[in-house]
Amino acid sequence: MIFSLDPSGTGPLHERIAGIVRRGIASGELAPRERLPTAKDLAAALDVNANTVLRAYRQLRDEGLVELRRGRGATITATAVDRSRLLEAIDLLVAEARRLGMSTDEVHRLVTERA
């Protein structure tokens, strides 16, 4: 997969980088157990600081999409595709709730009732 940032994009760089990886997982361009570029290599390719890439990788780790191991780098988790689809569904839910003017508490209550 080729990683590139849209120069006209908005939002924090680490979130934009994490978004690239999420889209790669969702589209199938990035497969489970596939290694991502090292933070240093990706930072050089994107012309950003390596700490920015590491922050994106940590965010993806916290979402369960990436596994980080010292000396082995970042790897797409085996369950990343399923989690990626769920996160996309949650993003759609949140966007729709905002459009309807619902509070976070209302959305939480509705989700809890359905769970």
Detailed description of the structure:
The chain is mainly alpha-helical. It has five helices and two strands. A hairpin with a 3-residue loop joins strand 1 (66-69) and strand 2 (73-76). The longest helix has 20 residues, at 80-99. It is globular, with a radius of gyration of 16 Å.
Question: Can I get a quick summary?
Answer:
The chain has a two-stranded antiparallel sheet. It is mainly α and 115 residues long. It has helices at residues 13-27, 39-46, 50-62, 80-99, 104-114, and strands at 66-69, 73-76.
Give the topology, please.
Blueprint: H1 13-27, H2 39-46, H3 50-62, E1 66-69, E2 73-76, H4 80-99, H5 104-114
User: What is the number of E strands?
Assistant: 2
Helical fraction equals: 55-70%
Q: Could you say what the CATH architecture is?
A: Orthogonal Bundle
Low-confidence stretches: none
Enumerate how many helices there are, as a single number. 5
Mean pLDDT across residues: 91
Order of helices and strands: HHHEEHH
> Nearest-angstrom radius of gyration?
16 Å
CATH topology: Arc Repressor Mutant, subunit A
The major pleated sheet works out as: 2 strands, antiparallel
Distance between the termini: 36 Å
What amount of the residues lies in strands? 5-15%
CATH superfamily: Winged helix-like DNA-binding domain superfamily/Winged helix DNA-binding domain
CATH hierarchy, class: Mainly Alpha
The helix/strand class is mainly alpha
Strand order of the largest sheet: 1-2
The 3D shape can be described as globular
Count of domain modules: 1
